[in-house]
Amino acid sequence: MTTETSTPAAAAAPEHPSDYVHGYSRTEARRLGDQADTLAELLHAGTAYPAGSRVLEAGCGVGAQTVHLLAASPGVRLTAADLSADSLALARARVAAQAPAADVVWHHGDLHRLPFPDGSFDHVFLCFVLEHLPDPTAGLAALHRVLRPGGTITVIEGDHGSALFHPESPAARRTVDHLVRLQARAGGDGLLGRRLHPLLTAASFARVSVRPRTVYADDSRPALVEGFTRRTFVAMVEAVRAEALAAGLTTPEDFDRGVTELRRAAEPGGTFHYAFFKAVAVRP
Amino acid sequence: MTTETSTPAAAAAPEHPSDYVHGYSRTEARRLGDQADTLAELLHAGTAYPAGSRVLEAGCGVGAQTVHLLAASPGVRLTAADLSADSLALARARVAAQAPAADVVWHHGDLHRLPFPDGSFDHVFLCFVLEHLPDPTAGLAALHRVLRPGGTITVIEGDHGSALFHPESPAARRTVDHLVRLQARAGGDGLLGRRLHPLLTAASFARVSVRPRTVYADDSRPALVEGFTRRTFVAMVEAVRAEALAAGLTTPEDFDRGVTELRRAAEPGGTFHYAFFKAVAVRP
Question: Which of A8, A69, B114, B194 has a Cα at 20 to 30 A from A112?
Fold first, then answer.
């Protein structure tokens, strides 16, 4: 079952929030799907909620993680919220195709102003969301409110500072840094993963436990090279080309050279390392 | 039992090889011991050789890893080699104190010119050694020769590019970069971890398998903050102060500010991430 709610908060949400650094194109939706499928086991391992649990996915986007959350936790009562109506429509279609029996309420609105009573959820899950918020502590505090005492929050974030590639290349490094800079200009933080422990602590969560979940790909793992290095990470960097040029951060030649050199990490003899961070904490 | 060999190659080895970026002080020997004890489980897990195996530890240094290798593999016939006679003496004392019954032959000499016949060893182990070699492929090729066909090589290296700290700080980042730059000037590579797969492949090893072994420390793990962030990583950076100043890379003020800001990663609210890389491969 999938249902949709419409709330006053939802009415205030823009169709295309302009500050989502990765954009809203179809290519980007496919990239997010590729990324989620490649990383599902790495990121979702250890997260399984009992059937009947009231779970909130805050910032479900195009549903890339939603389908994996539902696969790991059959029988949960999921509320999936996002700021973008277009993303929600894609998420709904994805869940209808991959988990047609799932019990999902779709909520169009801002996670800072959720219309749910205090303590409405047993568990809150969010993945690649805090990195986009100007004030992640405020976002976490808003989620703290709708979580029942004793309930858990699970947060997964990347940290682009952890991107290590061989061959090392100053041009490639600059190009990755453009992504971080653009995200900072949009009010976000591409280096947020390392901050999860202090952020959750500041938002009054207890028993905060953070662990890196690391992807490392070399010639011995061609599927990961293709699925992660090339189609997730390099694709994410490539996707900010127009924005980086418009912002005057780089020239077409320099950007393209950076991408070409970054792509060598996905060619024979190349290697790539990236650390996600996964946090679990409890509302006291 | 511990014995010591003296060979023509050993006679050519300098007492104090000048290009070891971390130096040879007593403080440094203690730092290496702290580091090894904190990281022993992380780095040595999965490495256990059958009793009776002929094992070579190439570049045993002060024996910081040697004692852990012996603890994990009781009954091996270990040859521990190092370029520095002083380090070997410290290693010998450490093993005498912690593993008095171990069967160890101490060899003073250069791993590129080991006086052992082809195929002398069932297993070769080296930790934090390749990062110091001007030509790590040549070093690996020399070890390939003394390994019997079907024997394994295990290589552990760090990669200073993986150091992520919160709070992020440009001064701290520059100070970490000095370490990388000094190591490069000495002919080494502080970013070697990510290169292990291509290096072992180039040296004709087969079934090369590399995995990151990551340390992450925050307020929830005070012993790791103390043992790794402060006493291992920050201490390693602090130890190159004189060398960085002599090389004109920085000023006392800038260096000290960088260390002060780096140290915040070990204070309340701080976090620290570092990836080691562990490779296992086979001589075909």
Answer: A69
Determine the residue among A267, A271, A278 to mutate to test chain B binding: the one whose Cβ has the most chain B Cβ atoms within 10 Å. A271
B222 interfaces chain A, CB cutoff of 8 Å = no
A220 by DSSP, 3-state: which? coil
This complex has an ipTM of: 0.88
pLDDT of A151 over the 90 cut: yes
Tell me if B208 and A195 make a contact (CB, 8 A cut-off): no
Query: Is B265 strand, coil or helix?
Result: helix
Tens-place pLDDT, residues A47-103: 999 999 999 999 999 999 999 999 999 999 999 999 999 999 999 999 999 999 999
* Cβ-based contacts of B212 with chain A (< 8 Å): 214, 216, 273
Q: Where are the alpha helices (DSSP H) in chain B?
A: 8-12, 26-44, 66-72, 85-98, 136-146, 170-185, 196-202, 222-224, 235-238, 241-246, 252-263
CA distance B93 to B4: 12
Length of chain A: 284
Q: Which residues of B174-188 are buried (b: 16+ CB within 10 A; e: fewer)?
A: bbbbbbbbbbeebeb
What is the nearest CA distance from A121 to chain B, expressed in angstroms? 26
Residue A185 touches chain B, beta carbons under 8 Å: no
Strands (DSSP E) contained in A162-231 are: 164-166, 206-217
The number of C-alpha atoms within 13 Å of A186 and in the hemisphere containing its C-beta is 24
pLDDT tens profile A23-35: 667 676 766 666 6
CB within 8 Å of chain A, chain B residues 99-118? none
Tokens 């070769």 correspond to B124
Q: What are the start-end ranges of the E strands in chain A?
A: 2-5, 54-58, 77-82, 103-108, 121-127, 147-157, 164-166, 206-217, 271-282
Touching check for B135 and chain A: CB below 8 Å? no
Residues of B in contact with A262 (CB under 8 A): none
The answer, for A208 touching chain B at a CB cutoff of 8 Å, is yes
SS3 A163: coil
Instruction: At B5, list the tokens.
Output: 């060999």
Residue of A nearest to B273 (CA): A194
Q: By the CB < 8 Å criterion, does B141 face chain A? A: no
Q: Which residues of A touch B161 (CB under 8 A)?
A: 164, 168
pTM: 0.89
- Judge if the upstream peptide bond of residue A167 is cis by omega within 30 degrees of 0: yes
Nearest to A198 among B166, B212, B273 (CB): B166
Own/partner pairs for B28-35, CB < 8 Å, 24+ apart? B28/B239, B29/B62, B29/B87, B29/B90, B31/B231, B31/B232, B31/B235, B31/B236, B31/B239, B32/B61, B32/B62, B32/B64, B33/B62, B33/B64, B33/B94, B34/B227, B34/B231, B34/B232, B34/B235, B35/B64, B35/B228, B35/B231, B35/B232, B35/B236
Can you name the residues that pair with A157 across neighbouring β-strands? A277
Distance, in Å, from the CA atom of B222 to the CA atom of B271, rounded to the nearest integer, reads 11
Interface test with A, best of B157, B165, B191, B214 (most A CBs within 10 A): B214
Give the closest of B166, B210, B216 to A211, CB-based. Answer: B216
